[in-house]
Amino acid sequence: MKVTFPHMGNLDIPLKALLEGIGLEVIVPPKISRKTLNIGVQNSPEYACLPLKINIGNFVEAKELGADTILMAGGVGPCRFGYYASVQKEILKDMGCNYEMVVLEPPDTHYSELIKKINHLKKSTSWWQLYKSLKLAWQKACAIDQIEQTVQEIRPLERERKADKIFKKSLHDLDLAKSKNDIVDITTTAQHDLRDIELKSNSRVPRIAIVGEIYTVLEPYVNHNLEQELGRLGAQVHRSLYLSQWINDHLFMGKLTVPGSIGNGHNVENSYIRSFVGGHGRETVSSTIQYAEHQFDGVIQLAPFTCMPEIVAHSIMPTVSANVGIPTMTIYLDEQSGEAGLKTRLEAFVDLVWRQKNKMGAESSSELLPGN
Amino acid sequence: MKKPRVGIPRALMYYYYYPQWKCFLEELGAEVIVSPKTNKQIVNAGVLSAIDEACLPVKLYYGHVEWLKDKVDYIFIPRVISIERKEYICPKFMGLPDMIRANVSELPHIIDASLDLSKQEKQLHGFVREVGKHFTNNGFKIAMAWRKAQKKQREFLQMVVAKKIPPHEMIEYLEDREPRVLTAQNNQLTIALLGHGYNIYDEYISMNIVKKLRDMNIKVVFPDVLSSEVIDVEAAKLPKRMFWTFGKKNLGGAMHYLNKNENIDGMVHIASFGCGPDSLVGELIYRKARDGEMPILNLTIDEHTGEAGIVTRLEAFIDMLIRRRVVAQ
Lengths: 372, 329
Fold this sequence. Notes:
- The complex is a heterodimer of chains A (372) and B (329).
- By secondary structure, chain A is an alpha/beta fold.
- Chain A is 51% helix and 10% strand.
- Chain A has 14 helices and 8 strands.
- The radius of gyration of chain A is 21 Å and the shape is globular.
- In chain B, helix 11 (228-235) crosses helix 12.
């Protein structure tokens, strides 16, 4: 059994650790590229949301590398993601791309369904081994998020662009790490290298939070490296969603502590959306309120075009923005999104946020420009 | 004492629950006002107040609320989370009162009780109580009003299934109390019209497609006239349980109409642009139709759709069906 799974940000690193830990052969699909997108768009229903299309591209490209089993998450509604696997199975069948699909989802009738699936995957590997692999995967996810948060802090301030190179290298090392000690070493080295980067003296940088639908928030290919772009424009970025936090919420019922989860939208009085609306729709609004409380300077909401939960949130964002006093911008992404258009909007938004931040205390207009 | 006026927007769940809601509210002592059939003015008002990315039926809902807002004391906008166990409608229905509150100004009081039967039937009592308490504190009166409303709804649904008349015509029939001749004559073709009720029954959204087809001497059948047992039997054949109620209805209905003895000549599926569930359910319907060698026409509509374009495609599709039948004979 050669297992593959769809990409989502850096999910491949912890997931690979987990699956290899229980004795499976893992084939990570090639990084998402124009080709991946094209394969997906050509073979998926036109009005499906973007993640479904890119998943298809991932699966086809992994097949070329010899994968024969797909591990996919599922769901029970109301978000479309819950039905992805069923539709994708049909599409792949039509394409002559034969796969076995293992869908992990909340059980419909009884927990034994889920346990059967896990047993099918882990074969004779012990539960103890599964626990150990899970722990390693979790440590990797936490390490990635810790390093990334430092990178997000440094990006707008560094004189030369070094932080992303260090981040890339540590991702590579973390992928190869075999034990907790390795992970700790890599994290320490990365943090050390990052702190050594020479910074600009200007410490007044605007802080912008990214909220919205998980796939578009976590996958840089889909959001056109939005975070790096914002960093280049002189803004510090924080996300409402980090992988470790998401795993914690969904797998460990939020029992563990995770690095820097200030905008996760938990424990916020949200009178704007009074019910769960699927996906991260409600959290998008809750996080925005939370970021305003934490004195952030702006919020950007990301979602795939036609995403239902985020449309509900988007309807409410202008009201929230006016009430809690934080500028917001909503960006929908699909296969038609162009990088130039996105850059223009980001520049305009950062300009606006800068001007708001510096409204009081600015001596001359040149001080208002970013990057000085 | 003057009766409180309660507005019900003629959109979304109106097509499925109007008899029940109307009876319930009237029994509680309210005067029910329904917005008129969708017109250009309502569409424009809706498009203006809703965000661009919302789907056409949701924009129309906004338009109907805009029409009602200065004519009534209350607007009835229930938060319909789930109407069947372990199923949902759509995230936008779950956030509907919140969206309306955020985007429509100068609203009257909104009755936004939550209806969530996904986990337990018991929640229904909560919904009933919450709506009722706007009008009376008398629990007995509320319970009696609800009983009567439920009876009305049962009769309504039974008549839809028994007489094979789609809900919107049944509502008109029940309102008018005029016997209408809705029985089909000698029709040349039979078409199954699939789609969400609030799209195909709204004459403005669907460009009156039902009438257009009937004028071409075609018999039109709908998934809504099938009993829930029939739908459930078909839906049970799916490899994964369908968790959207309307998705289940359409997919199950399509699967049922694929049976040879239903004598369906073709299917027309209407979806609104950007409809989340339909982007996947439509794909599955299309595949089932293809495997069953059933001709299918997919029409995607939004506020920019032109009638001429729809008519051309419909006529071409019908011509094709007629030729197909001639060849088969």
